[in-house]
Amino acid sequence: MSHSHRRTSRRFDPGIQTKQYFVPSMGRTVRLRVSTREMRTIDRRGIEAVVTEIRAREEKI
């Protein structure tokens, strides 16, 4: 029989941060809630490619 007194299960949250990016095609800055891994993806692919992908999914920017 277990003697553990842990009552709640552990929560795994990614490192979510709010970051502002300037998008030249829109002529303004956009505020995105991204994880640190997504930040590296944006640095690698560029903000323009990521924004067009978000628009293709018809998500709000």
Radius of gyration: 18 Å
Q: Give a count of the beta strands, DSSP E runs of length 2 or more.
A: 2
Alpha-carbon distance between the termini?
52 Å
Q: What best-fitting shape do the alpha-carbon axes yield?
A: elongated
Strand content: 25-35%
Task: List the strand order in the largest sheet.
Answer: 1-2
Oligomerization: single chain
The largest pleated sheet is described as: 2 strands, antiparallel
Percent range of helical residues: 25-40%
The helix-strand sequence is EEHH
Mean of pLDDT:
89
Supply the number of helical segments. 2
Unreliable sequence segments: none
Protein name: Large subunit ribosomal protein L28
GO molecular function: structural constituent of ribosome
Family: Belongs to the bacterial ribosomal protein bL28 family.
Pfam family, one: Ribosomal_L28
Give your account of this protein's structure.
The protein is α+β, with helices and mostly antiparallel strands. The chain is 33% helix and 26% strand. It has two helices and two strands; from the N terminus they run ββαα. The protein is elongated. The protein starts with 15 loop residues before the first strand and ends in a 5-residue tail after the last helix. Belongs to the bacterial ribosomal protein bL28 family. InterPro entries: Ribosomal_bL28 (IPR026569), Ribosomal_bL28/bL31-like_sf (IPR034704), Ribosomal_bL28_sf (IPR037147). Keywords: Ribonucleoprotein, Ribosomal protein. This is Large subunit ribosomal protein L28.
